[in-house]
Amino acid sequence: MVEIDSTNQVDLIPLANDENTTSITLLADNTNILIANSNYNSPDPIDIYYTISIDDSNLIGDTNLDGSVDVLDVVYIVNAILSDDYNVYGDLNLDGELNVVDIVLLMETILS
Q1: In a designed cystine with 69, which of 31, 41, 61, 99 is the match (CB 3.0 to 4.6 A)?
Q2: How far apart (Å, rounded) are the C-alpha atoms in residues 38 and 40?
């Protein structure tokens, strides 16, 4: 797998293979590209199928991905805004950007 972080650094991440099943964890603040390669070397074509499953059990507002929505997430969003870094879990109004509206919505969620 190729991982590109927020500073555009590229890392190659080897995947472990266990009975033809590979599991990787993707973080919301990274851009990830999965490159699949096969050692199949025959002139006869075959079909190779891949299934990609995404666990979307993370809570909207849980920007630090600790399983709860609390004041630590507010701090995370503020820091993300100040560093011009986007986090989908902090984008509570789903407008594609982090701003004070997301902080207000997160505070309302915490206080309710």
Answers
A1: 61
A2: 5
- Give the pairing of strands 10-12 and 31-33: unpaired
- Say if residues 30 and 70 touch (Cβ distance below 8 Å): no
Question: Do the beta carbons of residue 8 and residue 22 sit within 8 Å?
Answer: no
pLDDT 10s digits, 100-110: 999 999 999 89
Answering whether pTM is above 0.70, one says: no
Instruction: Enter the DSSP assignment of 61.
Output: T
29, 87 in Cβ contact below 8 A?
yes
